[in-house]
Amino acid sequence: xxxxxxxxxxxxxxxxxxxxxxxxxxxxxxxxxxxxxxxxxxxxxxxxxxxxxxxxxxxxxxxxxxxxxxxxxxxxxxxxxxxxxxxxxxxxxxxxxxxxxxxxxxxxxxxxxxxxxxxxxxxxxxxxxxxxxxxxxxxxxxxxxxxxxxxxxx
Length: 154
Known about the structure:
Layout: H1 2-8, H2 12-21, H3 28-33, E1 36-41, E2 44-50, H4 64-80, E3 89-98, E4 108-118, E5 122-130, E6 136-146
Antiparallel strand pairs: 1-2, 2-4, 3-6, 4-5, 5-6
């Protein structure tokens, strides 16, 4: 909760600077999957992760849920960073199109996300998962809802 309270008190610019520099601790899922912030600006975020056997499904390719989780995180960040005020945001819908499997030998996957619609209470974003040569592995869209500050009145 300390990180949430700290983040909720930051301006968008402070948040992006801290996020991009690693000043904000990674969420536990980021630690588990090993994704990193590569680029961040209002409404646009790029996350990256290294493919590895521990991310593989029984068929020896990166599990679809790994790509889905990193794509959701990137789109969430793109939408969140586009808000004028930092508020609690939740994903309401996630739609992923897997174009091809991600071999564990691929190396680094970049997930490039951008906010598409930023409303007062809802929004949408899109993302693409590509390798270092720009080969597309998956693309996705997501919907978000803006909630009230959970720390208000605490």
